Amino acid sequence: MRYLLRLGHSFARLHVRLCHQSVYNSHSKPQTVRVDLGDKKLEISSGKFARFADGSAVVQLGETSVMVTAVSKTKPSPSQFMPLVVDYRQKAAAAGRIPTNYLRRELGTTDNEILTSRLIDRSIRPLFPSGYFYDTQVLCNLLAVDGVNDPAVLAINAASAALALSDIPWNGPIGAVRMGMVDGEMLINPTRSEMSSSSLNLIVAAAPSSQVVMIEASAENVLQQDFCHAVKLGVKHSQQIILAIQQMVRERKVTKRTPIKVFSAPTDMVEHARQFASERIYAVFTDHTHDKISRDEAINKIRLEAEENLKEKFPQAEPFEVIESFNTVSKDVFRSLVLNEYKRCDGRELTSLRNISCDVDLFKPLHGSALFQRGQTQVLSSVTFDSLESSIKADPITTALSGIKDKNFMLHYEFPPYATNEIGKMGGINRRELGHGALAEKALRPVIPKDFPFTIRVTAEVLESNGSSSMASACGGSLALMDAGVPISSPVAGVAVGLISKAVPGKPDEIQDYRLLTDILGIEDYLGDMDFKLAGTNKGITALQADVKIPGLPLRVVMEAIQQATVAKREILGIMNKCIASPRGTRKENGPVVENVRVPVSKRARFVGPGGYNLRRLQAQTGVTISQVDEETFSVFAPTPGAMAEAQEFITDICKDDQEQQLEFGAVYSATITEIRDIGVMVKLYPNMSAVLLHNSQLDHKRIKHPSALGLEVGQQIQVKYFGRDPTDGRMRLSRKVLQSPAATLVKTMSEKQSISMGSSNSHTDSTGL
């Protein structure tokens, strides 16, 4: 028996090796194609690296090269969705750097890595076949980065090539390009230096026949016509990349695998569920008195009854088939209402907004606050100011790879579970929260003044959610910034547009009919085909993100969605302006204060203190943050005016040194030893001064290793000569050594009870120098 088991395992291992050998042989022939994109050449190659993967491709632009591998299991996953994982990791070696953490290895994931992973995921996910529930992993490996060409767009194209050249079922390929705009001129895949002066950062991914799959954009108030032109141009150039990948697929003669099972509901079960539940579902979706909670409860009640009925009728059916049968009917009824009857489940017209209300200055201690309510989506936004030292510092690897540097404006999005009447884990951050926050931050960043003296943090906490919480965060953040007195150039509003479409029979990538929905509900997002988010000012667009759930959108639909969103955006801005139309003229009284303090070079050592002790004590006791501006100027940030007053009093007390102003250059004084150190002695010329170091080299002409060699003790008075302050570091210069010569004839003593009269007839100075 054991022998038979071992024999079975051996055959299984042999089968796996043969399968891998077959894949290896099919990938063994290297392929390379080049695509002309304006004055740049994009190179796509495959068959040289990672040949055990189902698909592997390398895309190179300039000296930046990205390899992407794709592997999909042949056994279905127990999950009821497409289990796709995209992992983009920044490699320090690719940029010629070593990680700065203590292990000198890549640890964890950065925000930039997560956002880029989402970008790739959103580009390729819509083209997987419906019901393909097989674990699939797409890994992006940076091979080399030249610091000129950004690797993110190359990774999208490499993922497209890897999937297209594999046997994984996928209805690609796609192509992606980045569009920039400098002085009105459109740039294709601009370099990092070109992007630094570009008013547009647009990434567009497209499928064959100029179908748009994904858009991600940030812009500095770009006009609608310029934005639309950039999208069209990006789609046009992406078709060249698609043609190149299709050529590689034809040359390799790729054959896609046939999945063991495609998860879909059986037709007879769907028809039975339709007969049992469609009328009741229709009644719920046409009852406009329902809100999110009551509608969900009503549908779930019908769901439970329908599933019980299906189990009785089809006892052999799998749980997934039962659930999916009801979901199919529910989705069909909902979409039919919109497509055929132009009805939405909350009673609105297709282009109507939900009721909007705004409020600002909710909590007096906050630097700025606002509450934005749109239907049953509610976002509480707050603004916090801090010193420029609190700005986000990009790690060296991120800076080297993507050019992202320090930033003094950030927006953090929070989505607690109670926002949807659920229980969940708190703490940490997930990819969805990070992505939504990044989008709202992009929407607001262009209107923030570049020379603002504080670091700004906007927090957007979703208290209620029924669709489009990211755009509500942009609206609430704009209101909170104006409430805080940030002189933003224009108010910003955002809105989400949805899509319900009908495909041509037998051609899922062609749209026969469609309806665009303004300001979508959560259910319209879930059961719809698109989540098209647009934000901007009355003048132009500042951010756009399009997530598509079908294989592609015709350009005319995208252009219409931009126009419909623009009209809604202006309507929202009109409502917001009734609450607060422009930034407050002054920041709130309890807000932070920044002042510059001038400290003469002669006082700098005393101001800073030994080893920075005085500065640390000042910051700990008053809560201020101090940074040096130039040789004599320090910037003091205080969280409140009260803290600034305390800091000023502290600084005045530290720098108070009236008696030193009476010291005469070249005069000899009596100093008291307060401490004996290995390198010298600490002395005071008068009681209330800070002790200064008299180095061993200035104690005597003889070379000594310790002051005790001269018999010096704490409390002893010695004669020293004063040579003013060092012009470079402000330290007091004293010498006992020069007094060991006959040139020293006059000794001046200073005590707590004795005052100095400078310039009197009995004063004398010695011209001997150090």
CATH homology group of the largest domain:
GHMP Kinase, N-terminal domain
Q: Provide the CATH architecture of the largest domain.
A: 2-Layer Sandwich
Number of helices: 16
Give the total of beta strands. Answer: 27
Main sheet: strand order = 8-7-9-10-19-18-16-17
Tell me roughly what share of residues is in helical segments.
25-40%
Radius of gyration: 35 Å
CATH class of the largest domain: Alpha Beta
Principal-axis shape = elongated
Number of domains: 5
Q: What integer is the average pLDDT?
A: 86
Cα separation of the termini: 98 Å
Structural class: alpha+beta
Low-confidence parts? 1-5, 9-23, 742-770
Largest sheet: 8 strands, antiparallel
% residues in beta strands: 25-35%
CATH T-level fold name of the largest domain: Ribosomal Protein S5, domain 2
Protein name: Polyribonucleotide nucleotidyltransferase 1, mitochondrial
Subcellular location: Cytoplasm; Mitochondrion intermembrane space; Mitochondrion matrix
Biased composition (Polar residues): 752-770
Region (Disordered): 749-770
